[in-house]
Specification:
The chain is mainly α. Helix content is 50%, strand content 4%. It has 12 helices and 4 strands, in the order ββαββααααααααααα.
């Protein structure tokens, strides 16, 4: 998946400027800073809110894309639900809690962050199977913000709804000044790491008429060009999320190595021990 992200970080523009965290020195220009805890600071831990049943039910309905046989395709909804769960758990990090995120706004923004794909399908701009597989177009997050503003009116408190819309518009402009936008960006990027990335690749293979060998070639090429190393370096605002993504990537590599062995029949070996010469000898005596 190639996606547009909020990649900047502007200290002092969130709900409250961080005074008890330092940025690692020696970072290369253009990379996201990693905030490390000041051991002398006392930082309140953010608490995840209970799932807002009404907004979850509304989002499930809004993100269900009809299939040609009258059923619904859960691909987009499942992605949105995972990203939202990711976001709510990332918000439990101490460095996030220090900035006092609006948890209801974060939850709603995460649920609707990719709602622009629904409109793109409805407008005939892309086919259903292309959802989440193409480059995110200009105006994507703005579309999600507009849908959220309409559908969540009367569900979310007005202040939280305004904040959620601000978060999605910040994603559109790559402005990660809001802590909720930082969390959402990390949560969304995390979904691209590990075994979960197989399903979009399988869908792309079906759409483009490609098989397992194409998947393996792409994996090997990305390893050769250190694609994922660059993604790990540039995709996360919070060090703990980057570490988790690295662990997921290691699991994915092991899976792909096994897949390659089976696809190439490298594991089909029947090296049996030699049968002793007296195997058929009469042992009745």
């Amino acid at each position: 998946m190639r996606r547009r992200r909020a990649t900047g970080r502007k200290e002092g523009h969130g709900r409250r400027a961080s005074a008890s965290w330092s940025v690692l020195s020696g970072r290369k220009a253009g990379l996201l800073p990693v905030r490390v805890p000041d051991p002398t600071a006392t930082v309140p831990r953010a608490e995840s809110t209970m799932e807002n049943e009404a907004i979850w039910n509304r989002a499930r309905t809004d993100l269900a894309i009809p299939t040609e046989d009258g059923d619904t395709d859960p691909f987009l909804w499942e992605h949105a639900a995972r990203v939202t769960r990711n976001a709510m758990r990332i918000a439990g990090l101490a460095e996030v809690g220090e900035s006092e995120p609006d948890m209801a706004a974060l939850e709603a923004a995460a649920l609707y962050h990719d709602a622009g794909w629904v409109i793109a399908v409805e407008e005939g701009e892309i086919g259903r199977m292309e959802v989440l597989l193409r480059q995110v177009p200009a105006g994507h997050f703005e579309r999600g913000a507009a849908m959220l503003e309409e559908r969540a009116s009367g569900i979310l408190a007005p202040d939280s709804l305004r904040r959620a819309v601000e978060v999605l518009r910040a994603m559109e402009t790559h402005d990660a000044a809001l802590v909720e936008a930082q969390v959402l960006s990390d949560a969304d990027n995390l979904d691209e790491f590990g075994l979960l990335s197989l399903w979009p690749n399988i869908r792309r293979g079906v759409l483009e008429g490609r098989g397992v060998e194409s998947l393996l070639r792409t994996w090997r090429r990305r390893k050769e060009y250190r694609f994922w190393e660059a993604r790990l370096r540039d995709s996360f605002h919070f060090a703990a999320v980057r570490v988790l993504a690295e662990r997921r990537l290691a699991l994915y590599d092991r899976f792909m190595e096994d897949l390659a062995n089976q696809a190439e029949s490298a594991d089909v070996r029947f090296d049996m021990p030699a049968v002793p010469d007296n195997h058929h000898a009469d042992t009745s005596s």
